């Protein structure tokens, strides 16, 4: 039988899927990040966990692997749940999944809530391309290198941060990245859900007043460097010298750079005239 990864509600138990309810009742073993939270969720869903419940939080994750793998080899279904959202996404689970893959044991997933995609959807920032960075680094040197890498990242960035470090992280981001837009999503799906949008500096000022709850930050990607037509003339000339027709070379280079094809074509002709 498989390892089953099951997404749990971020805050509102009504977001639980019917498949999660069924899995809680049927699993032989339930590995839970916090067994108390699991039992509270089960009570809210009016379901009684059918199998053995074992704790599976970060500090015991490695130690619990052999017994869970033994259960899977014995044909038992192991259900993995974390406190909120999808297991293994900045939560316990990755090591167990990797171990199952290494031993050719089946792994499946009950999809559901995710703070990453929920925050991205409500942020108002581009969502066609994004990356997830987990929790922001804590140490100053690591955080500085992290911001340096994000300076050229053109995809929208989603990351987690603790409420007591949020103001400092946003202020450092504003200094390192400039006036990028961002959204701070707090307590998603819960009673006091709040989404604050603005520039990094504006959000840092707001957060300095104190923030509570689970925090997900969505950060605008870096804007592509502006390219002028004159910068592209030499590239077109080189392609023509290599045997391409001027019109096709100008059209392709202009399309990639996002500039006017006619303007680039005329600039190349002007450069030829001297």
UniProtKB/TrEMBL annotation:
Example of a GO MF term: rRNA (cytosine-2'-O-)-methyltransferase activity
Residues covered by the RsmI HTH domain: 233-271
Which InterPro entries did the record assign? 4pyrrol_Mease, 4pyrrol_Methylase_sf, 4pyrrole_Mease_sub1, 4pyrrole_Mease_sub2, rRNA_ssu_MeTfrase_I, RsmI_HTH
Q: Which UniProt keywords apply?
A: Cytoplasm, Methyltransferase, rRNA processing, S-adenosyl-L-methionine, Transferase
Record's catalysed reaction(s): cytidine(1402) in 16S rRNA + S-adenosyl-L-methionine = 2'-O-methylcytidine(1402) in 16S rRNA + S-adenosyl-L-homocysteine + H(+)
Of the GO CC terms on this record, one is:
cytoplasm
Where exactly are the transmembrane stretches of this chain? none
Q: What class of enzyme is it?
A: transferase
Query: What subcellular compartments does it reside in?
Result: Cytoplasm
| Ranges where the Tetrapyrrole methylase domain occurs | 3-204
Looking up SUPFAM superfamilies in the UniProt record yields: Tetrapyrrole methylase
EC number(s) on file: 2.1.1.198
NCBIfam families according to UniProt:
16S rRNA (cytidine(1402)-2'-O)-methyltransferase
Q: Which family does it belong to?
A: Belongs to the methyltransferase superfamily. RsmI family.
What role does it play? Catalyzes the 2'-O-methylation of the ribose of cytidine 1402 (C1402) in 16S rRNA.
This chain belongs to the protein called: Ribosomal RNA small subunit methyltransferase I
């Amino acid at each position: 039988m498989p390892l089953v990864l099951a997404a749990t509600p971020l805050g509102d138990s009504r977001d639980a899927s019917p498949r999660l309810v069924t899995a809680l009742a049927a699993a032989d073993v339930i590995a839970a990040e916090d067994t108390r939270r699991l039992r509270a969720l089960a009570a809210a869903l009016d379901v009684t966990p059918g199998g053995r419940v074992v704790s599976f939080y970060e500090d015991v994750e490695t130690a619990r692997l052999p017994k869970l793998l033994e259960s899977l080899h014995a044909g038992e279904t192991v259900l993995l749940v974390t406190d909120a959202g999808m297991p293994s996404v900045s939560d316990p689970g990755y090591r167990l999944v990797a171990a199952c893959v290494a031993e050719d044991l089946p792994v499946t997933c009950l999809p559901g809530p995710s703070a990453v995609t929920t925050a991205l959807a409500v942020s108002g920032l581009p969502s066609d391309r994004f990356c997830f960075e987990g929790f922001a680094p804590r140490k100053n040197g690591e955080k500085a290198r992290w911001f340096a890498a994000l300076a050229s990242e053109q995809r929208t960035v989603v990351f987690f941060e603790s409420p007591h470090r949020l103001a400092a992280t946003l202020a450092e981001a504003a200094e390192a990245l400039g006036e990028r837009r961002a959204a701070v999503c707090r307590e998603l799906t819960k009673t006091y859900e709040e989404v604050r949008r603005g520039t990094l500096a504006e959000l840092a000022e707001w957060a300095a007043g104190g923030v509570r709850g689970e925090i997900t930050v969505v950060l605008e990607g870096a804007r592509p460097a502006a390219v002028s037509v004159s910068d592209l003339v030499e590239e077109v000339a080189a392609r023509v010298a290599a045997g391409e027709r001027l019109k096709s070379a100008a059209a392709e280079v202009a399309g990639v750079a996002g500039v006017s094809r006619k303007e680039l074509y005329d600039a190349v002709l002007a450069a030829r005239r001297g």
